[in-house]
Batch of 2 targets.
Target 1
Amino acid sequence: MALHFELVTPARLVRSDDVYMVVVPGSEGEFGVLEGHAPFMSTIKDGPLKVYRTEGAAPEEIQVQGGFAEVSANGLTVLAEHVEG
Amino acid sequence: MASLKELKGRINSVKSTQKITKAKQMVSAAKLRKAQANAEAARPYAARLAQVMGSLAGKVTVSENSPKLLAGTGKDQVHLLVVANSDKGLCGAFNSNIVKAARLKAKELEAAGKTVLFYLIGRKGRPVIRRVYPKAIAAMFDTTDVREPGYAEAERVAAELVAMYDEGKFDVAHLFYSKFRSALLQEPTSQQIIPVPAPKIEVASDAVVEYEPDEEEILAALLPRFLKTQLFGALLENQASEQGASMTAMDNATRNAGDLINKLTIQYNRSRQAAITTELIEIIAGAEAL
């Protein structure tokens, strides 16, 4: 059981991984996405994206700017204009 | 007939020209590979964004309250032609093809009684358009100080365009650039960018998607981003096209120079031989006379 997570910027595909959970800084509050999340679409405010590779692991933080998240049956796709780290 | 010395000089000058064109051809070939890789890397983002836009646009009805970038200003009078060119020459008809497409469109619009303005990206399109439409250039965007126009430039262009649009300086914007088909074939393309045409991708979404905030707000946030992506895509295509065109043009030039050198060398050898023969005849004639 894993969540397929993709992070895409205009210049390239930054990340395409299977992870346990991603916490996304949505514009109306943070939300965590696990596998099997309902279809969902949200804008993102500038902030850290927390990627948990496995359950209980220390999160890896990726700074995103000007982003947009989409959860579909295929997993989570984050479109961001700028990415750091 | 040119003297031997003159011929030798010409051969040398063609040789050095050939060196330049050959070098430029190799540089372009290397750069083309990079530009193609860049264009490829940018595809997932553009595709995803278009998909999202498509699914959103299907859900939101265009009304007076919709964002102006989608609904338009309600007028169709002033057209802005955004022409993306390169900064450097030595790439065959690449720039003139784009400018030609833009001028055709401008003529067509003017015949229909519209006002035409130009927004020029890159250095090479300026002289021609300035000569034909001296008063219609709204702004010029300089890319000479960056090595290769990237997303930052696309962002700045988009910001300027949106600002001009909000001030009501134009109603419709078209983008002109060259689409990269192959190293041999580049296609000048025009495309409407403002108001944003709704992508035609129909997304079959049976799942109920939740939106946060609501559809309209997401759409409003996405529109400028979509514009940036389109500009960015155009810049990348343009770069790949420029290198492709340059490669082809320089290949032709190198070959032409080679032919010219061969011809000149033959001519040089013939005249040298003729000179030797004349000299010999003179000597023999002189000896016989004694």
Target 2
Amino acid sequence: MTQKGLRFYLRIYGKILAQDLKSKMSYRADFIISTIGMICTNIAGFISFWILFSRFPSINGWGYYEILFLYGFSLVSLTPVQCFFDNNWSLRQYVYSGDFIKYCFRPINLFFYFQSEVFDVKGLGQLAFGLGTLIYAWVKLGLGFSVLMILKMIVFLLTASLIMIALQNAAAATCFWIQNSFYVLDLVMRFKDYAKYPITIFNSVFRFIFTFVIPIAFIAYYPSLVILRPDAVPVLSWISPVIGLVFFWLSYRFWMFGALKYSGTGS
Amino acid sequence: MSAIIEIKHVTKEFKVLNRREGLKGSIRDLFSRDYKTVRAVDDISMSIEQGEIVGYLGPNGAGKSTTIKMMTGVLEPTSGEILVGGNVPYRNRTKNAQEIGVVFGQRTQLWWALPLIESFRILKDIYQISDADYDEMLKLYQSLVDIEPLLHKPVRQMSLGQRTLSDILAAFLHNPKIVFLDEPTIGLDVSMKAKIRTLIHALNQQKHTTVILTTHDMGDVDALCQRIVIIDKGKMLYDNDISHLKQFFGSYRTLKIRIKGDLKQYAEEITEKLPRCSVSADDEWISVLVDESQTTVMQVLSELQKDYKIRDMQLEEISTEEVIKKIYEEGVK
């Protein structure tokens, strides 16, 4: 048997994705309603954000458009976790019912196989919304465009996505040990809301927690400093791509460790 | 011919928390490290040849699933050796997965939203099946079952029978050396059961696939298995041909009689009169299982005739079902 490389997995993913989209489109009402729902959620989030800033024009030296930039940045960086890793939300049900065992019999990577099963289209609406916000803020801030900046932007968006994915993986994988893991997952996912704000508005305890324990500050704040405050970029910003990779790898190992010790319920 | 599955002195133990009763007990459990060890599988050895269909039987909780999980690489044995197609399943899980197919009765492994043919195409990629082999397999399927109506139907819209059929076809698709079928006919109607048995038999014949079948339905065993392995409480009770098993209990015959009146009540009375026979009743017949090494059918019959007016009678050789039931209850003597 040949070693299964990236191309092998991309091919399979492409196939599953194409089929999955096809079948989702066939449930048209479901598709339209969930898309409308997603748009409403984003608009509501945006309105509460706008109300807040119409009262306080700046927070801790951060202006309206800078915060808007953070907001858009976090929306875009949340897209991959929403689109590609949404099956993590169902993991606990599969584990609890014993159905998870069905993933254990295929000659491919268990983590890949599990995540490939679900692609959430709703994430694309969020991506469009986030990109719109980001570009609008970018123009208003007069940041200018250069190839280097776009490259930086892509690298740091990927970094932020990796950290978000890592957080979700780790939170979801707790279900291999505890039964009510929904609360862990829900709690961690709620923290992501704080990712939209500059970390300097929190006190030092929370700043420490959001940097080193639940590293949501890496989702938008540290990466976007590279673009927004290029004169005073902290070391944490520059090393955030490495931190992203490390966290993702750790969460993957943790997830796999749980999955491999899983023995299923009796049948 | 060498063995495709080789199991030597395999034991699997689980640590289970000793649970206490009541709310107070649960709170104490939170801090307790008081584990007891449960032996789900206890020193099992067997050797299975390529192409065999083996019925793996045992009452619920006997350790069947645990053994299968060890053979498929999901669980690691506590001690002992397992070789499946030359691989140690737990250590080479993905390599082992390439060589086996698995069907769990009520849990489909197909993509819920996809039509069967699309699932097949993805499986073709996952198992790296060549175009020629894939086409040949589909042709074989077409000759064995009426597969056309299934191919373009999403799995979620299928009936349980169609889904099981599809799962079995998917498990054989990459022409694995071994297929594990865990209660494949559970919950199916009679004609679907027959269809599935025929399919399994045909695939075994055509592809020389080894099949390990766990079931509670003796119809499956009678239709498919030459050899059965029985375990209970983790221990192996029996491993041999079915015909041999019947010889074991050859001295048993079932006498069925019909009496007018409440059969259940009569059955209780007869149980008291004939302590050495096991007596049961259904809507029409009272069945008396007679051990002919102890007494004869004729003796039992004349005994019964003294007290009851027997309207009709039948004599049956012991069925596989009853043999298995006796083994579950009493073990092999």
